[in-house]
Amino acid sequence: MLLQRALRRRETQPPTPAIGEPTLACSDSTASGHPQELRLAGVIFDPAGVLYDGTLWVRWLFQLLSRMGMYSHFTVFARVWEEDYLPLINLQQADYWQTMRWYLTSLGFTPAQLDEVQAAGQSRRREFEENARPLPHVRQTLEQLSRAGLSLSVCCSGPWTDEQMTARLERLQLADLFDGIDSRFSGPSSEPTQRDLVSALAETMAASELRAEETAVVSARIATLQAARSLGAAAIAVDAQNLIDEATMLATFDELSRLIVSNAACTRAG
């Protein structure tokens, strides 16, 4: 069968990832090429693609489906899944594999092929979920920012409830580092509007008693970064393809601890 042949090829020749690992990249830097220091009191993280790579399972599935004859680009495949189908699961309108079968049916897969994909994918998906790890340097950097006196919060732009996002961060052993976890885009709309994003970030700042001008927002999504800038907060992008004007350039996640100087630390030094 197509699936069995695809799995055999996978065992003998590991596939090349469809896209590269997320890296931090933005636009403002000093004349020397080093990022400018930001004097801040708090940082808000949009977690997917920033704190963890949320694409590992979908990458594996995409590679498998491609070997079964699907022609698509990973970014398109993942975006349609995340925006049009994943919200149905998080809103408890359908279970995971029922929803996945709907999606794959729309791509032309037969019922027999769907059975094969589900049989192979169920255990692999659990494996990815159970073995999820933070991206490199994430916990160490968050600990450094916390010790510097910064307020750290999560404001999720994806279709997750607070409980789902908290559970995910607990599995990653990161939940204890955040003062607040806010995931408010699990409503009937599959994709938050710009107004939703601005409102959510403003409420997250208010809950942490932060002013926009003393807050940075770290995200892999253009819309979230634009919402941050519209409020007057600093924007730090985590995807070289999703740059906006007036964002901050970083090469790796651990540069955050060198980039950000908390107001409390500056006061003590002064």
List the SSEs and their pairings.
Blueprint: H1 2-12, E1 38-40, E2 42-45, H2 56-67, H3 74-90, H4 96-106, H5 111-130, H6 138-147, E3 151-156, H7 162-171, E4 180-183, H8 194-207, E5 215-219, H9 222-231, E6 234-237, E7 247-248, H10 255-259, E8 260-262, H11 263-269
Parallel strand pairs: 1-8, 2-3, 2-5, 3-4, 5-6, 6-7
Helix pairs in contact: 2-5, 3-4, 4-5, 8-9
Q: What is the CATH superfamily classification of the largest domain? A: HAD superfamily/HAD-like
Give the terminus-to-terminus CA distance: 70 Å
Structural class: alpha/beta
Reading off the top of the CATH hierarchy, the class of the largest domain is best stated as: Alpha Beta
General form: elongated
| Rg from Cα | 20 Å
* CATH 2nd-level architecture of the largest domain: 3-Layer(aba) Sandwich
Number of strands: 8
Integer tally of domains: 2
The major sheet is characterized as: 6 strands, parallel
Low-pLDDT parts are 1-34, 186-190, 265-270
Q: In percent terms, what proportion of residues is strand?
A: 5-15%
How would you write the strand order of the largest sheet? 4-3-2-5-6-7
